Amino acid sequence: xxxxxxxxxxxxxxxxxxxxxxxxxxxxxxxxxxxxxxxxxxxxxxxxxxxxxxxxxxxxxxxxxxxxxxxxxxxxxxxxxxxxxxxxxxxxxxxxxxxxxxxxxxxxxxxxxxxxxxxxxxxxxxxxxxxxxxxxxxxxxxxxxxxxxxxxxxxxxxxxxxxxxxxxxxxxxxxxxxxxxxxxxxxxxxxxxxxxxxxxxxxxxxxxxxxxxxxxxxxxxxxxxxxxxxxxxxxxxxxxxxxxxxxxxxxxxxxxxxxxxxxxxxxxxxxxxxxxxxxxxxxxxxxxxxxxxxxxxxxxxxxxxxxxxxxxxxx
Length: 315
Known about the structure:
- By secondary structure, the chain is an all-alpha fold.
- It has one domain (32-314).
- 63% of the residues lie in helices and 0% in strands.
- It is built from 14 helices and no strands.
- The termini are far apart.
């Protein structure tokens, strides 16, 4: 009974006192090599795939949040959501710049991966699924709530990854390119800064506890599957991987990921570690406030070279 009462009496507004700060950034990609972590092509390609996974999803976040914005009755949460939208839009633009000005210009075909993500977020998860299946009026809120739950689950994962990259010094020690390092750390820090918003909004509009279980299964399978599939596609374009013929359904890429992570989890997060990090989200007492330290995120954001570069451009 106490557990049920605790779930029922969850906060339904904003759970933070601070204001989330949208920032402009500017990245310079002309000197960033494909192997942005020296002598680590597998890891470099694996992280580069994030640039293709994220933009379509982040623009989808913005569209859905703008749609439900009028339903928010807590003014602080509404302020949080507006700031979240602006941050996510900037994330999408920054990763798109990497796709266009860094990968494409170095003859890496990104279109196949981008089209796959576009299909998922503009067709499958659209207001009208597959663009032609109307959602009956009485079920429209449930469809929105399901999608908001997907975002809340994804945002837990991005907070986990944000912590991973923010505190990880290994790539720096290996001589990683400063621009790409700044991109992942800046993005990771902002994920920490706005880590409460998606979960607060989901609960505010009626999201339940039990649904977190099936949403987590869907998100974990989709994120890891899309990540490996996309990374395999861009690796196949590199002659160094010609004999491996990387593919989602072939064991080599999975074995290599596990091997590198077991060698040093700071090189790449182990796939089982990623899955294990979702367990906290499934607890009835889960609160994203306790998942990371906002002050550490802000400390990095205040010194991010891309953020400073954007300020100089405006000035």
